[in-house]
C-alpha cells in the first residue's frame, strides 16, 4: 500500500560506505575529554576554521541578529508571507559575493539567480529542469558520493562515469569524455549533459583551462548542457587560481549565446562561508526557461526570510567579506599543509591540491591486495581499529582501489594532530606485521648479495657458506 519510493529506499544511497562510516562515528564519536578513544570524524567536509570571524561580525552587528533595520524592528515583515523568489536584497548581496570570490573578473545578474535550500536541492532541481527520467548525465570520477542520491533518486536520471586516472592526476581528457559518451549510447541512454564539481570534491583540485576548453568544445559539439557545481569556489587557497565557467563564457565571447543558455552554476554558502546548517544554495543560469521553472520548484524548499535577511546584512559588508575570504583561505592552506606533512612523515602521499576541505590520499601501498575488496578491508581497519572515519575511493566511484578522501577542516588542530598520531601508530604496526623475522631478513639479505656473484665464487666457497649457515 506504499509508493515505490518508500519500498525502494536503498536507491537513496544510504548503504554506501560513505554513509556507513558516518553511522560508525555517530555511535562512538571522539571527544578529547569524555570519549578520547572514540572515532574521529574525517569524513565530513565542513569548515569550522573561521567561526570566530563570523561570531565577531555577529557581536558587532546586533541589529542584524535582532532583526532590526536602522534601529526599527523588521521581525513582523520577515515573519509574514514571503514570495518564493526570495529577498532581492539577499540575492544582490549573494551575487556580489559570488563575484568577489572570483576576483571580480565576472559579474552576476540577481535576476538569473534561483535560491534553494542548499546545493543538494539546487543540483536536483537543475536535473529536473533539463532531463527526463532515463536520461543521463556524464560525471567525472571520482565524484561526491551524494550525487547518486541528489541527481538520480527522485529525478529518475542516470549517471554515466567519465573515468579519470591517477596517471595524469585524475584530469579530464578528451578520450575519457568520448568513452563515457559511447558507453551511454551502448546503454541506449540519451545524454543531456555533463556535471562537474569545480573545485573537485573529492580531489581538492580546480579544473585547468585545458579541461574547461575540452568541456566547452564537447557540449558545443554534442549540443548538451553543462552544470558546474562550484560550491567550493571560495576555498581555493593556492595556485592555480579558480576559473569559473562564467569566466570561460566571458573569455570566449559566449555570454548571451545559445551555448550560455546550456551552462548552469550551482553555488552555496555551506563551504565558502561555513554555514551548512543555514541551507543556502542557489542556481545561476542565463536560460530564462530554466530560471522560471526552477523558481517555481524552489517553493518546495525555501530559505527562511530571517536567514536571508541576516545574511544579506553580512554579505553587504564589503570590509567583512574581503577580510573573511582572505583569512579563511590562509587558514585552509595552513591546515591542508598540516595534514599533508603529517601523512608524508609516515610514508603516505596526497594528490597535490589547491582547494577544498579535504585531501585525496594515496594508500595503495597499504592494501593487502590491489582490489576494491582490499580497499574495503583497509577502510574497515581504519574506521574500527584506528578509529578514523575517512571515505574510501570506491564510495566516490574511483576506478582505482586504494585512494581515500580525508577531511581536515571540521576539527581543532589538536584533534588533527592526534589523528596523525593514530595513523603513525597504525602504519608502524603494519610495517612490523609485514616485516620478516630477523633470521629471515638475514637470509634474504644474504641471498640478494650472493645472487649477483659469479658462479665460480659459489664453487670455491660452498663449504664455507654451508658452515656459516649452521652457525
TrEMBL record:
GO terms classed as biological process: ethylene biosynthetic process; fruit ripening
Pathway: Alkene biosynthesis; ethylene biosynthesis via S-adenosyl-L-methionine; ethylene from S-adenosyl-L-methionine: step 1/2
Location of the Aminotransferase class I/classII large domain: 40-422
Essential cofactor(s): pyridoxal 5'-phosphate
Domain of life: Eukaryota
This enzyme's EC code(s): 4.4.1.14
Protein known as: 1-aminocyclopropane-1-carboxylate synthase
Source organism per UniProt: Tagetes erecta (African marigold)
